Amino acid sequence: MIHENATPISKEGLEATGHTLTTADDDGVSPLQPADTSAGLLSRRPVRLLLGLVVPALVLGAWQLNSVVGVFSAVQLPPPTAVLNAAVELAERGELWIHIAISTQRVLIGFALGATLGLALGALLGLSRLADVLLAPVIGALRAVPSLAWVPLLILWMKIGEDSKVTLILIGAFFPVFTTLYLALRHVDRNLVEAARAFGLKGFRLLTTVQLPAVVPAIFSGLRLALAQAWLFLVAAELIASSLGLGFLLTDSTNNGRTDRIFLAIILLAVIGKTTDALLGIAERWAVRRWT
Prior knowledge:
By secondary structure, the chain is an all-alpha fold.
């Protein structure tokens, strides 16, 4: 109830209190909205990139400070310059680029195969109730098997070679893609599907016109999880009597007490993993604009 003597609120008064008045001419409604410029500022890509470098810079500074203060010994935590020197040494010998190339190749091949299989089975079980009843219990049980449990079988079946390593990465990449797509298709709005069928859409046209656009964000969430999982499984894969790769560099440095190379391998895995995830993020933004 509005009192007849109530003082009208002016636009200037709202702005003085940190609010803006949106009229019906702007977007059809007239809510009172707080003036928030921080969200717009944080949405700018250069600002986000700079803010994303703040924590790594602080960590690097604390790491360098440790080499002066000596909280941890150089054996436990070598200074950044020692890690850099280890990278330069391996690069000059031509080993660093080989380790990076081999590991990246294994991850991309295993990820591509695992993601393809995950998309195919996820779509099959998500769209077919018969396939869901037949295969979902088996796939759910296999998903609970730890990654290292597959190593002895892969060595027995595929011997020591690239096939066993790529297959282990494939296993790691398969389940995130399968699970996210399967569940996303199961939760597509049934009313939307029925409406599309009423307009004569069925089969492949129904999938590409209604169901696929509805699950594009979920697909890319699964792909990004699968890519991260592939890098995790890489280290386990390169434990299979490998002589090249970042996982081998990590374990070989551990055996030889080269802490500087251990940190180098960890940093390279983090940087390359983040780079591949960023590239997949670019593809995700394009696909969301294209399909949704």
